[in-house]
Design goal:
By secondary structure, the chain is mostly helical. The protein has helices at residues 2-18, 23-37, 44-61, 65-85. The chain is globular. It starts with a helix and ends with a helix.
């Protein structure tokens, strides 16, 4: 359930703070910071995609909860794939 805290931190706090510089800076900036927090590894690109998707969801819905759901589904799918093929 770490993804709930991550969404509140990266979208609720960081993306919202970056919002003063515009929507693009908010979405891209929080996505890049989110991805880098996950490390420079194979997860970098997927983390940027999930971060940007969740940033856009925050902008459109004004809520972090849709992003929490996307994050949970993404993590769940990654776990299943890892168990099947890892």
């Amino acid at each position: 359930m770490r993804y709930i805290g991550e969404e509140f931190a990266f979208r609720g706090v960081i993306a919202t703070a970056l919002g003063r510089y515009g929507t693009q800076v908010s979405v891209v900036g929080s996505a890049v910071i989110f991805a880098l927090a996950h490390g420079i590894n194979l997860a970098l690109i997927p983390a940027i995609v999930v971060g940007a998707t969740n940033g856009l969801l925050l902008v459109r819905t004004k809520s972090v909860w849709p992003g929490v759901i996307v994050h949970a589904v993404n993590n769940g799918m990654a776990t299943v794939v890892s168990m099947l093929f890892g």
